[in-house]
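lol so apparently i was supposed to do this last week
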Amino acid sequence: MKIVSLFSGAGGLDLGLLQAGNTIIWANDIDKNAVETYRNNIGNRIVLDDIKNIDIAGIPEGDVVVGGFPCQGFSQANRFRLLDDERNQLYRFFYEVIKEKQPYFFIAENVKGILSLGNGEAIKQIIADFEEAGYYTDLHLVNMADYGVPETRQRVIIIGQRRSLGKKILFRFPLPTHDKNGQNGLKKWVSIREAIGHFPDPDTPNDVLNHEYSKYKVEYRDYTAHRQTDPDKPSPTILARGNGGGGVCAIPHYNGIRRLTVRESASIQTFPENFEFYGTKGACYRQIGNAVPVMFANILGDELMRIERDEKI
Ligand SMILES: C[S@@+](CC[C@H](N)C(=O)[O-])C[C@H]1O[C@@H](n2cnc3c(N)ncnc32)[C@H](O)[C@@H]1O
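anyway here it is w/ S-adenosylmethionine bound
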């Protein structure tokens, strides 16, 4: 299918969709490092600009629009209409692209916290807005470890289907392939050691791309980015930002000595080892922490390919 990608970042989502056989016809991000990474690994279809400067009429028509909109003003949703709040311009842009372009499907990715913002009012409004724009919506809270990603990252995925395609929901949301204990005929969750155990010590000479790490001291305090990692379990969520201060916070390696390298973080997010990240170390960690795991995106992409092949749309 032909895909228009908003808030594309370094392109974790886009790469997975591409790997499945879909085509990206247009992409955008405001972050110049992320765009450089995208251009060098995925392709030249990405426009570097603030989305607020983009004229929707100039965006090509795609079969699917994808993106994860940042949600600054959503905690006020129980008092204000999301679309009227100035801080929600990015959400409004995503909504307007869907409303004006009327793709067959949209895929929106967001953090788990979106479900509780404004006491649950934000997500209700989002669903209502997309219904009003002409879409059925199907919402899933996903743990990426259940799909073979070596990380217990939880994200909300909203699938929209244009109402004019009929009542039958064509996008069959992929079923989990993995389980915490490997029960019910599913494979066991993939551990962090299985994902990164083969990398050489970054302090010895090596030719692994982006194999450098934050020198921020490892100290175990019981909060995000400062928790001990168990080599036999999937990694905790690879973060885009530290705790509150906004600094970079790569999570500790299970050896307890140092933090994960950029490459190790990327492998946990299932980026291929030849995918090179551009910008400072901090910028690279941010691009990786922001991404949809490539492996999960590929599974979503497979379903788009199946629809293209099997359903008459
Ligand atoms: C969660 S990330 C998306 C990651 C991407 N889906 C992936 O899988 O790699 C959100 C992106 O929105 C971008 N962004 C934030 N504000 C923007 C704006 N005003 N215009 C365009 N992009 C923006 C950020 O730079 C960031 O890369």
